[in-house]
Predict the structure.
Amino acid sequence: MTKYTTILLFMLCWFPNQMRAQSFSMSEALDSFKSANDQYQEKEFRKALFSYKSLLEHGYESADLYYNLGNAYYKLEKYALSIWSFEKAIMFNPGFEEAKTNLELANKSVVDKVQELPRIVWWHYWQRFKALFGVKGWTYMSVIMLWLLAAGVYLLLTKKVHWQKRVGVYLSSIGLFMAIFSAGVAINKKLLLQNPETAIIISSNVYVKSAPEDSSADLYVVHSGLKVSLTDQIGDWLKIKLADGKTGWVMATEMKRL
Amino acid sequence: MSILILFLGWNQVSAQEYRFYVQANKKKVSMAGKIQLTYKFEGGRPTEFRPPQLENFSFFGQISQGQETSIINNKVSRSYNYQITLKPRKVGSFTIKPAVAVVNGIEFQSDEITIKVIEKTDEEKDIQAQIAENLFIKVYTSKREAYLGEQITVTYKLFQRVNLSGLEYKSMPSYDGFWKEVLNDRKDFQMKEEDIEGVRYQTGVLESVILFPQKVGDLTIDPFVLSTKVPVQQRRGRRSFFDDFFSNYVTYDYELSSPILKIKVKPLPPGKPSDFSGMVGKFDFEASLTTNQLEINDPVTLNISVVGEGNLKLLKPWSIKFPTGIEDHPAQTHDNFSSKGGSISGSRRYEYLMVPYRDGMFKLPPISFSYFDTEREEYVSYSNSDLEFKVGKGTEIHEGGEGGPSFKSADEISVLNEDIEYIKYNDLNLAPVGYSPFGSAKHIALSATPFALLALLLLFYKKKEEEEQDVVGTKRKKATSLAQKRLKKAHELLQKGDSTAFFDEVANAAYGYLGDKYSISNAEMSKEKALNTLSENHISEEVVTLTGKLIDECGFARFAPGDKSTLMQTVYDKAVNVISTIEASGK
């Protein structure tokens, strides 16, 4: 019995330890988040922006923080950075309606209008389906499915009546399949967050090069606020791809990865 | 007068009959004079002629073209001539670079020519000075320094005291960097007599404009240039008695140009109001409604008028967001400008006709106007925010009307301004950077829990099942002991070997047991009744048959011959088995 107790204690200790890596505690961070919001309310947008950014530097983030940061950038007319922040907020919380509204407004400042390449309908459905929940949602989903699986296995093994066994088989197979599926989506989204494949152009206008070197030909010009996909990296150069399929090389300093 | 013709060689390129050469009307020219060059091309018709690049001369007039046919020794030669007139710019000896003619796509170069330019002779200087005194253009400007958009009046005036023959406009100012409003131009040119400090001049306004600077900096207005022919009395070295008699006039080509005008344009000072649209001058502003009490479908007009002096013509109509429930019409512009006294003043009025189709109070957004006052050197703002009117329901039924009341379909909520959604203020969330709910301790714990729980539950289930099996065992044991108790007497009789009493006792015990268990009275008891009762109580067929056999055997055994000890033992075991089985079944 003592063995289990130690494991339990170890788990309890491990969880808060993971958070203490930050330079100030969660409650301090929340307090400074609130005071930054107060600065925003007093229309001290520059101060509020500074506070939001310092929270990020101290190792805290959330959809809410990115959303408020985006608002502060917007008020200071730094539209490209506000687009970046709103996109980030939506990545953390795909159901963030306010962030979507604000992103739409901020995107009005983007001068480049890129015609999106047509895709098959299923791709759109799949994207919309994946966007139903964030990493958290899909993780919860997989946990719920694991519980379902366990319940099904229990019914299958202990019940002697035929229909109860049948329910057990159904529950456990659905649970198993959905748990693996949801975990897959969650891992996919987690990896995307950690290693983003998209970026927002920050410089006001950028010449997109044909090769990762300064002397190569200028292919076309993009302007601040445009969202691009990243497909490759050589040194400081990133290969970008626009929604219409155009590709080219841009210095990493010209953009901000999501 | 002798004309010196210079032949300066053949063109080398045209080996056959092509010749392209230049001739000058003189090889020496004074700074005050002009020289005429004729480029001649023989043997073809040039499709293009490019005059030489000039450094020390400037073109005077345009290129004139001509053809010339000559017959020498029965040979017809035709040449195409291009004549240009040049004015020297510097004193010295200069070579004029070749001109180019294109024939059938081939470029031909003419030869070069050297011209000597000498100083003006004293006589020429004298003549020019004399003309300049009596023929000049003056420029008048209201300001030499102005703010961006401030109006400036510029007038070019010709003064003359000599007889002119012909006046040619050579170049006119282009006023780059200004928006101009013409007051007087060539069409209005009129000469009149004017006394300037006791000297009588013929004067005429060449051009008069009002300029509004459009860019900041030192702006230069190119001069007004006229060319004319002035009759000049030829003077000889020696004065003779006949001079006045036979005064010898020659016409002298004279070019007169106005001074170059420089205007310094200052940027507007900082602190522009947000509604500032570039109006500079001095203005009055008024915004008013024709009425503030009306009925549905009655018109009401919003008048916005700006009165004053300045770049009023550049004013643009206000774009007003009318409240919903009003049918609005585009603005009508009414102008009343005059340019008396050399400056533009007047008024511009915008009329916005509105027809409300809903009743209630209507409030127009504040209408503001601001301009830069050049006298006070500061921005002035006006605003009118109390533009309200009340609309009554009116007579909704039109007498004998065809349409009846005009209803508009419901309006969409009109968007006054677009702004971002407010920041998130309550229920804030934060997480350490890089923290992912997937793979977190909580996730792992929550995922592991169901399986731990499952394992526990399965263990519990197994133990309970085992215990259940134990219960069956003890029941059986109890049932057996009960059966043995019931058959105690029979057992004693078995030991004694009393077979008759034994079989009776076994049957009795069986009946007694079943009677007690299923509440059957002794009177009712029979073999059929007992077996039926067992069947009714879901005792298995096998046991029922066994019970029947046992009772039958007990009946037959009494009369069976031979040794009965083994039979007794079998019947006893069977009885114990039947009773304990029935008892253990619990039914």
Summary: Chain A touches chain B through 57 residues (CB under 8 Å). The beta strands of chain A are 60-61, 198-201, 205-209, 218-223, 227-234, 237-241, 247-251, 255-257. Confidence is low (pLDDT under 50) at residues 5-21 of chain A.
